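Curious: why these numbers?
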Amino acid sequence: MFNFLLGLFSNDMGIDLGTSTTLVYVKGQGIVLWEPSVVAINKNTGDILAVGTEAKKMIGKTPAHITAFRPMRDGVIADFEITEKMIRHFIKKVHNQRSLLHPRVVIGVPSCITEVERRAVRDASEQAGAREIHLIDEPMAAAIGAEVPVQDPAGNMVVDIGGGTTEVAIISLGGMVLSRSVRVAGDEVDEAIISYFKKERNLLIGERTAEETKIRIGSALPKKEEKTIEVKGRDLATGLPKTVKVSSGEMHEAIKSPIKIILNLIKDTLEDTPAELSADLVDRGIILVGGGALLSGLPELLSKETGLPVNLAPDPLTCVVLGAGTYLEELEKIKQRK
């Protein structure tokens, strides 16, 4: 009864604290915040100038005394102080100012992170104003958010490709039987595109341009119809602005290396999967979630290479935060079972 009353006076929330994007789910309201995990600070004073969408607009365009960057790297905290301020900003933005209590939060974290890194997430959240912190592994949260029947006595394979990490997990009877991860994901695909332009086109482009190019013409498989777009950057020979045309075929070649690493991770996990659970995967296939799952041609490539059906989650970007939100809604029942 006491915990029920506490819930009435605080906006408990589930958080997907991603390398690229932070999403927040508030109990009883659904997803209420969806912003880039970017912070802009004044290097001279240490003051926070912008967080989220406004800060992302500043990347690569700031004067010398201002820097806009992501305090999360490869799914973990790279800058504790700035991450704490970012979490505080997001909590304050969605938390009911009339609430008498600080919120309880459930945060999705990569299953591969160390205890020290988990403690850093807890400490940053506590410093940001959370009164109670619960961590849930992202593959499990993603599976719950994708409405995978995780409690069934059968194997389910989830591949979560985020901004900083790719995680593969075999889930059965409400737990992860096997999990593998690699710190190669959407960011590395962007970096591969930047590297391609630098080496092959003698053109320097920024992170945002690389991401836009990936979204528009990037593909894990060669496209049946070749597409061409114009990309703007700085000519490394003259130092002057320059526009070049680039094809989808070129981008396919550019991103082959990080895609191969992700594919090998999936194959290695399948090789280590117990035989009975492997048999389940023949029918159930692979569930693909995360922002990186939206890369054109990726489901088809994975199906071709593994021989398994590959299903893209209905909304790959929100699976982790929806799973954290569902966990939050069932928190009291989960506590009673422990």
Observations:
- The longest helix spans residues 256-272.
- The first strand starts at residue 13 and ends at 17.
